Predict the structure.
Amino acid sequence: MVDQGTTAIPHANPANPLDHLASRRVALVHEWFGATGGSENVFRQISDLLPHAERFVLWKDHDATEPNLRESWLSRTPLRHTKAGALPMMPLVWRTLSRERFDVVISSSHAFAHTVQLGSPEQTRYLSYVHSPARYVWSPDFDGRGSSPLLALPRRILQSADVRLSRHVHSYAANSQEVRARIARYWRRDAVVINPPVDVDYFASAPAADQGQTRDYLLGMGRWIPYKNFDLIIQIADAAGLPVVIAGSGPEEAALRRAAERVRVPVTFEVRPSKERLRQLYWGARALLFPVHEDFGIIPVEAQACGTPVVGLRRGGLLETVVDGETGFLVDSLDPRSFVPPVHQLRELSPDRVRAHAAGFSEQQFAARMAAWIADALR
């Protein structure tokens, strides 16, 4: 049976509801820390709420410049270079992280960080913000790294360990309704939903020259890997008869460039655009194409902050970030022809309405909801 928990976010008090934690020992815990990424940004935002907290990570990537991160002993082994290889060791690492004891431990988890223990559950309060239960352990249909039949037994072992070693967690928060449902299905626990922070102020405040663009192309943005469906984005643009810009980077680049040669519309590749360039691309696009099932999806919110509607799948995070028929259009099929009618209806949408919707996912909103959840969970 699913544990019953608070699902509504209480309103934060005008005074900082976390002031009382200044005199308590607090630890913040994250998985591996890369140079960029949505989960890393969540960890930074939580750190800003609790600046006196000790911060622990499995390891920090060599190109990550984040200061004051305490790395685990796993960082001193060759396993730091292979996330898949390190996975079976992670539960052990989180239980042997430090001999120090803390009053409050808050984890930012997309693998096993929520299993960390830095004090007995009777004396230490454990909270966990979950980006997703480990996809390669619980959802191999989403993540091919765990889909091999040879990994069926190891996955079952890790699933059992994941549940057993996380019973001490007092309160969960999920980054979306999609992830909340997985937490209930896999761990039999309830969770508060707190959507990740998006820098909507930056994307909304583009220079006048960027805002005055003619919006004459479609845009695909993200990591160029198979499940992101960038090949489908190219096909959608071809079916709609509109140019498309493919922005990002990843191992599928060569395949996508070959796919671009087979269509009739212009396809432009923007490799690793800067944040400033990405803002320009959002403001110049007629729509962001997002035919992918994501847990949440920060990119669609960034696009909407620029007044750019989203055309994507009626699944996962888009059900929370896009208002169908108002800030974009949601499609039920992966047939590229199904996306053509919505693309031709984009002129009916109000850019002001699109931007206003994105404001609900701001960093300020995240901070208020996160602080309220932590304060409520510690009562």
